[in-house]
Design goal:
The chain is of the alpha+beta class. The chain has helices spanning 2-6, 22-26, 33-41, 60-70, and strands spanning 46-50, 54-58. The protein has a domain at 2-41. β1 and β2 form a beta hairpin. It is elongated, with a radius of gyration of 20 Å.
């Protein structure tokens, strides 16, 4: 049992307070896996094809501005 406690963080998850693995904390996460997955599902992005560059992911608000700049003759 003591081996398990040494592999967990001393502070709990940012959202639920449960202890999570030290390896996850070393990667920069401050949440347990369950809360991290719920947080990640909240994030949305839009993929926009950029001329002569490929595809880029933008937040919905930024994508609207990028699309306006891609085709200035057309109002969005």
């Amino acid at each position: 049992m003591s081996n398990i406690k040494t592999q967990l963080t001393t502070q709990g998850c940012h959202y639920c307070g449960l202890l999570y693995p030290i390896a996850r904390a070393e990667l920069g996460y401050d949440t347990c896996k369950t809360c991290g997955e719920l947080e990640a599902r909240k994030v949305r992005h839009t993929v926009v094809p950029i001329n002569k560059s490929g595809y880029m992911a933008y937040s919905p608000a930024a994508a609207k501005e990028v699309v306006k700049q891609l085709n200035p003759k057309r109002s969005v």
